[in-house]
Amino acid sequence: MNRGKESVGFIGLGVMGKHMAEHILQAGHPLYVYTRTKEKATDLLEKGAIWANSPKEIAESTTIVFTIVGFPSDVEEIYLGEDGLIPNGKTGSIFIDMTTSSPSLAKRLYEEGREKGISVLDAPVSGGDIGAKQARLAIMVGGDENIFEHILPFFQLIGKTISYMGNAGSGQHTKMANQIAIASNMIGVCEALVYAKKAGLDQEKVVAAISTGAASSFSLSNLAPRILKEDYSPGFFIKHLIKDMTIALQEAEKMGMEAPGLALAKKMYEQLAQEGEENSGTQALYKYWER
Asked: What residues make up the catalytic site (predicted)?
């Protein structure tokens, strides 16, 4: 490991975070990691990452910290709790939250950080486990543009499409637009597969035939094949998509906007979650028609 490179902290080693952190480690940066379940860090620790016992220890060990956790409540605790990043961070630190969270919380973290001389970016990602593993994530960033430019080389280690969207909260608003598009699209993908099956067609041939035309989408190309293999393992959890859709509907309501497609998708996913599918991948929406 090149100890001349800047140290980095990483909090959250779930389905996506573990791959993102590994790309930073492989680039030669000393990497401090923390996650609530230490076992999730085993592979990274064996490859040279350094364990920290809390966000506070991360904040005390480095001035660049990435976070990607589950829910806005987790983000708030990690950033603003007694052992959190902002209360224990050094002046000049840069914290980058890559969780899909609420735009209002992103703005609050930005303001709380600024009062302590700490910069905070909201930088949610899209691309699921595949994009994280292949370092091909789409990254949508809000915050100060000069801080974005400073962190850009790190973003380039984990993503392919990296977009500066504007002031604090803009990254999260962009991710909400992304989730709105995904939620309704997944309904269409699943309905198309069910229709093809009932029509007596070979579903694999249907996916191959329509995935390069006007119906093409990430969900059709990457998740439909998983459905056909009855692989419902999470590239992105249903419970997290429900969280995202809830935030998007709340933000839409604040703006006086109706979102009927999003509302329908949320209702369908909530029914599946109630039936025990909350930890399945979003492609498990296909099971809605098998109920």
From this structure: 175
